[in-house]
Amino acid sequence: MTQANPTLDDVWRLFQETDRKFQEAERKFQETERLMKESADETNRQIKQLSKNLGDIGNRLGEFVEHMVLPTVVQLFQARGIEVHEVHSDVSARRDGEGIQVDRLVVNDDVLIAVECKSKMSQDFVDQHVERMGKLKRMLTAYRHHQAFGAVAAMVMPTDVIDYAQNQGFYVLVQSGETLTIRNDPSFSATAW
């Protein structure tokens, strides 16, 4: 059986059919690409919302720690022989273009303890508190003659962070049941700023 040579019309039809299939494939590709972009956009939106929600939860847990500190912190430090009698919340000041914010400031007539509260304490947060302590009396001039100590408080504080905070000279307050305890050994000597 011999095969006839294709005519110009046959080639033209084949070309048109190939072009139609190519355009159909291109449309499907563009539709798939559009759907993938929409899906990626929706996923990004959901991730941003989840991150915001987790951040809100973290902030709320940090507030919870701050509220746990408030009623117990005076008794905790008095039990350690530091006769503090006042607690001030969310103390902040701005001077000469810089600022400071302290979650809890526990004071008496000549001693103050600046307490940083977090839901989960990290070494970075400890380092930030070291920096805060370095400018505390300069920024809060009413306390410039006080002996200043630092403390960190958290619901969750890994052992390495506890050790790190103690090495920085901080009192370490951790959750124990429904209250807080000072984790430092009774012989611990805090750094005075």
Structural class from helices and strands?
A: alpha/beta
Q: How many helix segments?
A: 3
What is the helix fraction of residues, given as a range? 40-55%
What is the CATH topology descriptor of the domain at 63-182?
Trna Endonuclease, Chain: A, domain 1
Overall, the morphology is rod-shaped
**Distance between termini?**
104 Å
Q: How many whole angstroms does the radius of gyration measure?
A: 32 Å
**Which regions contain 5 or more consecutive residues with pLDDT less than 50?**
none
Q: Report strand %.
A: 25-35%
CATH architectural label of the domain at 63-182: 3-Layer(aba) Sandwich
**How many individual β-strands?**
6
Provide the residue-averaged pLDDT: 85
How would you summarize what this structure contains?
Helices cover 51% and strands 26% of the residues. The protein is α/β, with parallel strands linked by helices.
Describe this structure as you would to a colleague.
This protein has 193 residues and is an alpha/beta fold. The protein has a domain at 63-182: Trna Endonuclease, Chain: A, domain 1 (3-Layer(aba) Sandwich), CATH 3.40.1350.10. It is rod-shaped. It has a 6-stranded mixed β-sheet with strand order 1-2-3-4-5-6, sandwiched between helices. Helix content is 51%, strand content 26%. The longest helix is centred in the first third of the chain and has 72 residues, at 8-79. The termini are far apart. The chain is built from 3 helices and 6 strands. Strand 5 (171-176) and strand 6 (179-182) form a beta hairpin. It has helices spanning 8-79, 123-139, 159-167, and strands spanning 86-95, 98-107, 111-120, 147-156, 171-176, 179-182.
